[in-house]
Every structure is written in C-alpha cells, then in structure tokens.
C-alpha cells in the first residue's frame, strides 16, 4: 500500500509540471502572463522656464497611464489662481494668461503602477504695451435701466481685425430669452440688437470673454467684461409728419399728444425708427452740425 500511494504522488507531480509547461508554451512566459502596470507619463503644453509664452495660451496638462489627482496654475507670487477643467486624463485652464506675468503650473498624477508623479513648470508670458491691447467699453453701463430700443454697444479703443473670433466670445443673455444678433459698424464699434424691441422688465447680461484673445495684427483683448442691466418701461413716441403731432405711450397706453414741427418741403424731418440713447438737462442745438450755416 505504501509503494502505491507514493506512486500516485509522483504521477500528480508529473501532471502538474506538464500542465505548467503547457501553459507557458501556449500563452507565453509567466512574466508575460502578468504584465507590469505602466508608470504615469505627464506632459504640459508649456516648457519649464519658458519665456514670452503667448498670452492666448490655454495651459494644458496631459496624462497617459495614470490619473490626475490635482492640478493648479497660479501667478508665481500666488496672488492670482486660474481655475481649470478636466478629468482623469487631462486638465485645461479655463482662461487665458495675463501679459508680462510669471506663472507656476503644478500637477500630481497617480500612475497605473500606483506611484505618484509630480509635474512643475514655471514660465513667463510675453510683454504687451497698451498699444498692443484693445479695451472694450460697453453701453449700457453696469446696473443701468434703459429703454426697450437700446442696443448693446461695444467700442474698442484699438480696431479689431479678427471680428469673427471676437464675436464668438461675445455673448448676451436675457430673462426672458430674446433673440438678437451682433452687427459691426466698423472695426472699432459693434452693436447687439434684439430681433424686436426688448420686452419691458427684461434682465440682460453682457459677457465679453476677450481678455488676451488675439484681435489681429499683434493686438490682444485687454479685459473681460460682465455687464448686467435692466430694461425699463416700454416708452414709445410716434410722430405723424403729415399731421405735425407727437403721441407718447407708456407700456402701450397713450398718455398724450402734442403738436410738433416736422420741417418744411425740401427739409422734412427724416423718417424712420430712432432710438433715444441719451438724456440731458439741456443741450445747445446747433444746425451747423448738419451742414447748415447757423450764423
């Protein structure tokens, strides 16, 4: 009985060895069967100690064989941080850069092999003068209440050549929602008008995402703008040229009608829809501004 039991053990060992050899032959080596996990590879689209980095750069961090744990971009002195967006395999800054500024980019990544990899980049952006930047002034002003016919007027102190690009970064939101569009009067002035009049009481916000956006010819946007304003009552004045009368209505209710002068044959008052965009306590009306000798 003893010799028979030992014989069985020998057979079992031989079978086990044969099975292991067969597995190695059909599926490769044991090392190949359990491949080691790759370490993380971390990249950024700015080089360490780089100078004159374009201000329109959106800083990015890329990751292979790993996951971003955290990433941050801030000025070298830590006074200003730029927020970012991303997932496990990448991170992108949410805004462009300021001119002549030193930045520090840091990222911590955990590799598929379980080990952490740190990335640090310091760099400086290009220097721009005021002549290299175009400032957007906006009307209406922040917090103003204006009439239903008031357009949004953006005036640039230096002409914009990349109109289409700028327009893609200029947004008007309103409650209730109102359809409208931009129209460039020149390279320096662009208007936004609703398809019809603004509804009375509408809340409007103008968002200009233009800071460090290339305007063309080496010029960049100087600043973002966020301008909320409100539409007041619907005040409409209708002039009947033939009858020489002016009728004023507020919120579609007629308030009064008064007599007015509408010119004379050959010099009639020009017809059309006119938007009253300014109000003064007094104004000197001089016909010389229209080419008429007032002396």
Description:
This protein is mainly beta. The protein has three domains: 41-125, Immunoglobulin-like, CATH 2.60.40.3780; 130-231, Immunoglobulin-like (Sandwich); 235-290, no CATH class. 12% of the residues lie in helices and 42% in strands. It has helices at residues 2-27, 30-33, 163-168, and strands at 41-44, 50-53, 60-64, 66-75, 81-82, 84-87, 90-93, 102-111, 116-125, 133-134, 136-139, 145-146, 152-156, 170-175, 180-184, 189-194, 203-208, 214-216, 219-221, 225-231, 235-240, 245-250, 253-259, 263-264, 267-268. Strand 22 (245-250) and strand 23 form a beta hairpin.
Topology of this structure?
Blueprint: H1 2-27, H2 30-33, E1 41-44, E2 50-53, E3 60-64, E4 66-75, E5 81-82, E6 84-87, E7 90-93, E8 102-111, E9 116-125, E10 133-134, E11 136-139, E12 145-146, E13 152-156, H3 163-168, E14 170-175, E15 180-184, E16 189-194, E17 203-208, E18 214-216, E19 219-221, E20 225-231, E21 235-240, E22 245-250, E23 253-259, E24 263-264, E25 267-268
Parallel strand pairs: 2-9, 10-19, 12-20
Antiparallel strand pairs: 1-3, 3-7, 4-5, 4-8, 6-7, 8-9, 11-13, 13-16, 14-17, 15-16, 17-20, 18-19, 21-22, 22-23, 24-25
């Amino acid at each position: 009985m003893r010799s028979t039991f030992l014989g069985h053990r020998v057979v079992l060992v031989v079978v086990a060895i044969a099975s292991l050899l067969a597995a190695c032959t059909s599926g490769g080596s044991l090392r190949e069967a359990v491949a080691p996990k790759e370490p993380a590879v971390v990249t950024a689209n700015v080089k360490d100690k780089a100078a004159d980095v374009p201000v329109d750069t959106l800083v990015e961090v890329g990751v292979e064989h790993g996951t971003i744990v955290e990433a941050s971009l801030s000025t070298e002195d830590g006074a200003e941080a730029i927020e970012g967006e991303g997932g496990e395999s990448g991170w992108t800054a949410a805004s462009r850069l300021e001119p002549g500024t030193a930045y520090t980019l840091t990222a911590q990544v955990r590799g598929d092999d379980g080990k952490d990899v740190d990335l640090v980049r310091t760099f400086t952006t290009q220097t721009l003068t005021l002549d290299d930047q175009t400032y957007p002034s906006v009307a209406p002003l922040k917090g103003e209440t204006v009439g239903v016919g008031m357009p949004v007027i953006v005036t640039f102190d230096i002409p914009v050549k990349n109109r289409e690009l700028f327009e893609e970064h200029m947004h008007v939101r309103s409650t209730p929602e109102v359809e409208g569009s931009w129209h460039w009067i020149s390279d320096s002035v662009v208007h936004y008008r609703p398809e019809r009049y603004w509804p009375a009481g509408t809340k409007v916000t103008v968002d200009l995402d233009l800071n460090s956006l290339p305007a063309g010819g080496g010029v960049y946007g100087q600043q973002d703008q966020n301008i909320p304003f409100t539409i007041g009552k619907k005040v409409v004045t209708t002039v009947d040229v033939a009858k020489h009368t002016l009728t004023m209505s507020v919120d579609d209710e007629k308030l009064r009608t008064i007599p007015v002068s509408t010119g004379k044959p050959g010099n009639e008052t020009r017809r059309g829809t006119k938007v009253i965009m300014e109000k003064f306590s007094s104004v000197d009306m001089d016909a010389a501004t229209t080419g008429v000798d007032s002396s």
